[in-house]
Amino acid sequence: MGVAMSLKLPPASGPHPVSCADIILGPGKEGTFFRLFYPCSSTDALQRPLWAPRAEYLRGLTGSVGWDSSIAQYGASLLLGSPRLPITWNGPFVAGEDRKPLIIFSHGHGAFRTMYSALCTELASQGFLVAAIEHRDGSACATYHFSDVAPGPGLAPTLEVWVPFRKVDPGMKEFYLRNYQLHHRASECVRAVQLLRDIDAGTAESNVLYSDFHLQTLKDRIDLSRVAVMGHSFGGVSALLSLVKDDVFRCAVALDAWMFPLEDALYPNIQKPTLFINTENFQTASSVRKMKRLSSGNMESKMLTVLGTVHQSQTDIAFLTGPLVNRILGPRGSMDPSHCLEVTVRSALTFLQQHLDLAGDFPRLDDLSEEIRAHVVPDSPLIHSSKL
Length: 388
Known about the structure:
By secondary structure, the chain is an alpha/beta fold. The protein contains 9 helices and 14 strands.
């Protein structure tokens, strides 16, 4: 009897088919690495991308949760295999002349750029460009960069350098490391928008990674007046700090934000609309007080708690199935992961439509079934309490 897990991500529900491409702009650790999820115009004869593009990510993922290296090296590929996403790879960008709103997505501690593919795919199917950053501050389970650019046209870049997951050194106060990483992450979010601005203007440098997706197809197609930042856990608080780092971000969606790394002095500076979507078991009373401190006096900020969910419910990990899932990953949320995804997407779309001034008929949180809405506790209503 096999022991392999299976990752079964749901197909996108929006009006657009979705594709993705990996993009590295700039050599070295200070370059920018992200997977771009985007609406595409055709899905004919295109391959499906791997969820974990390299074995190093699976080994890093298991190592970041405490498995020793020998287990990680053997167990990662055995248990997870090589799941593929229900979208296409390097497909043609959706036809037209309209500009698409942009979301910068920041992953959580010990994650990597594709661990939120279900969520990013859903948003892209609704017409958004979603740039899922892979952070190089040591908080990704694994990532890499190139110290040299490609030596010539059509040639692969050289000198691949992997950045390992960084743990707190003995004797080091965790706050100082995490606060340093937080600022690094927020700066990477800002840098990604700057580079996407160059892509929209047609002046961007070439993608360091060889790709059939041509950046020129995004020229004059990115709506840089409608940019939001979003993230989970460490990425949630990174999204909050990004609001301070650059005015290009009009609002933020923070999924189960890990508030610990944010210094108190910055709280008064976070004045833009923020949506907090929390799971039931992760947040402490102290963290919620910090969120409410940010929301005090800001009528545009909202908070939701989704009952029956755990911290990983907002990641692709929630869609892992198999006999060993609970034993390895611990307690799972009682809410169906597809329902959690639906709550997250609809609440985010309701919020983004308002604060990015978007036209269109997006799926709204109000329209969820009564059964699902019964799991949503609005501290500041995005849904009408009369429907609960």
